[in-house]
Amino acid sequence: ERFERMAQDVFTRFGFEPIRTPVMEEADLFRRSVGESTDIVQKEMYEFEDRGHTRIALRPEGTAGVVRAFIENHLAHESAVRKFYYYGPMFRAERPQAGRMRQFHQIGLESLGSDSVRADTEIMQALAAFLNAAGIRGAEFQINCLGDPDDRKRYAGELRSYLERRIGDICETCRIRMDANVMRVLDCKNPSCRDVVRDAPKILESVKDAYRAELEVVLGVLAESGIKGRYNPTVVRGLDYYTRIVFEVTHPDLGSQDALAAGGRYDLLVKQLGGRATPAVGCALGMERLVMAMKAAGDPASGPRIVVVALGESAQQPGYRLLSQIRAEGFDSDMDFENRSLKAQLRRAEKCGARWCLILGDNEIQKQTVIIKDMTEGGGQNEIPAGDVLGHLRKVLQ
Ligand code: HAM
User: Fold this and answer.
1) Which residue out of 21, 43, 61 has the highest number of ligand 1 atoms within 8 Å of its CB and is therefore the one to mutate?
2) How big is the chain by its Cα radius of gyration, in Å?
3) pLDDT tens digits, residue range 202-224?
4) In Å, how far are 202, 214, 232 from 151, measured between CA atoms?
5) Is residue 301 very low, low, confident or very high in pLDDT (cuts 50, 70, 90)?
6) What's the rounded mean pLDDT across residues 101-110?
7) For residue 177, how far is its CA from the centre of ligand 1 (angstroms)?
8) Pairing label, strands 17-18, 82-91
9) How many Å separate Cα 385 from the centre of its chain?
10) Can you say whether residue 5 is alpha, beta or left, with left for phi > 0 and alpha for psi between -120 and 50 degrees?
11) 243 lines ligand 1 (CB under 6 A)
């Protein structure tokens, strides 16, 4: 929820509007967009026939649904760019492991209608701003350029002939990929394939000069904005709809599933799915992986700011009344009802990151006071009249 709120804040600031698309779509939508020969469509879609005998899929990703909604609901504004953000569950029948789930959650951005490389950099900057707000450090943008279909076709031929010369050194899966989807060989994790790939021709050498120049612009903008990024020729993406700039965001704390987010341009997809030709670019981030990266960085405590510490049986009822008053005032607060020792209650308050403890025992009840303890390091405590507690909290918390 915190990430979702952050996404709303950051992406609204960048001019994106919310969009929610169905979790189910016709399976065919993904065949036509993500691509027939991709792992997602070949092996990972949860697909079934509904009562009307339509092939349905639980969405494996968000872009196809957004583009479908964009076309069907005529969301294209005359000569204006439409920018959307979304979050929600996605489904892929992969083998579960750390950072890889069969139901996972993405936060995504899609910007439709601009051909400019500034739209690419805007997406990356919005994503970087979000990561920054989430307190994630150490993420790195890995950028590549895939050109247009002509460039790719030419390059696929070159790559295939190179791989044929090294056929003995590549894995079984990659030999199959050579026919169906040769570029996927470039991101094979097998060590011997990696060796082969190191000396393979680079797609950047096959793309048109204008596209190559865009890569320079992107790297320049990232450097200017203090976002860590580099050209990485092995980023080819596992979905077919990409053109021109593509990227993945890696994070060192994610282990083997190191992509925190990924995206790129898909200039041909809107037309391919039946709409008017509309250049577009977008990205999506895996929320579970975000949580992993955040935990590795030290999970910030997220408990209530105020904890009422009631000591002894007779303090329980007044303590509870105070808790209700604080909550009614709109402050987040909590209390332990088990009448534990002062030490135990303070330890728990500290653990959940409380900023203030309000302590009351027999003495305080008699004097009609409350002790306010500042929980920051070296913070002191003072005793104030019970009637002044809310006013005091208002002053220190607002
Ligand atoms: P993707 O690279 O397939 O791209 O997924 C984006 C992110 O979703 C990944 O970087 C990863 O963090 C997360 N992710 C993917 N699969 C799993 C899984 N099984 N378990 C946990 N997390 C996962 C897309 O989906 C594109 N639609 C991105 C995009 C938007 N391109 C343009 N617009």
Assistant:
1) 61
2) 27
3) 999 999 999 999 999 999 999 99
4) 12, 15, 18
5) low
6) 98
7) 21
8) parallel
9) 47
10) alpha
11) no
